[in-house]
Amino acid sequence: MMAERVCMLDIREDLLTEKPHHIADSKVQQVRYDWLHTQPKDDTDINALTHKAGEWFLSSRRNRVDGIDHFKKLDIIYGCTDYINSFLMKEKTYQILEKDYSYYRLFGQQESKVGDLQSNVPIIVSLPNWHFGNSRPDWKEFLDECESKNISIHLDAAWFTATKDMSLDVGHPNIKTVAFSITKTGFQWNKFGIRFSKQKTIDSITVRNANGWINKNTTNCANFILDNISVDHAWDRHEQNYNVICDKLALEKTNFIHVAKKNGKSVGVAGILNQC
């Protein structure tokens, strides 16, 4: 799959960052500029946007999601952080895995290893995973353990729009919800996302959606973004440039458009890609 274009980039090692940053290229910035200078005549219909967003995330040509047909309940979220917070508030007792998103640990929960999980205690896990990539090497063992111990799985797929070549199978019976966000597409300032659930549950997200208590600025803007950028934008636009950067700076390539590895350690390359 060809990238949109190759730019003349200033490729220097000092432009790499210790922490990964979001893509904020000229296309993303133009969409933001156009939105800020657009005044919608009417508010976006929430039900229509919910289904539109679900279709937008699943329209990826670079990644696939299998088993999503079992997830009939869709709810708007304010990014995957909202999804995480709602999960933590509802469950109170939960589990997290080692080498997962550090935000999960901020509330005092200790990490667990696959093989040592508690029975009947739900778990939240990120996939794609920042450390391993599109999957975890222990993913099959993890799923088997969750099934044998009756552990409900909740998937945080925040990095979905930044990755490629991912096959996400959510058809496993213990996976109960999965959430996607447009944040990594370069719209962290909007914080819009969608949660897919197998069954309707009562939590802050479902109450908010059922009663229409959703910020209109967020949804009107999200509707505009979805109309003006592709779910695969980051890799479609920057693939060739990413490869050039990695080759010139002797970096190890990853599946994440904004991340490469130097001497086995992740580094951010968005500062270079954003020149395009």
Structure notes:
The chain is an alpha/beta fold. It has two domains: 13-32 and 232-273, no CATH class; 46-228, Aspartate Aminotransferase, domain 2 (3-Layer(aba) Sandwich), CATH 3.40.640.10. The chain contains eight helices and twelve strands. Strands 2-9-8-6-5 form a five-stranded mixed sheet. Strands 10-11-12 form a three-stranded antiparallel sheet, covered by helices on one side. Helix 2 (46-58) runs parallel beside helix 6. The longest helix is centred in the last third of the chain and has 16 residues, at 233-248. It is globular. The chain starts with 25 loop residues before the first helix and ends with a helix.
Descriptive terms for the model:
32% helix; three-stranded antiparallel β-sheet; 276 residues; five-stranded mixed β-sheet; Aspartate Aminotransferase, domain 2; alpha/beta; 2 domains; 17% strand
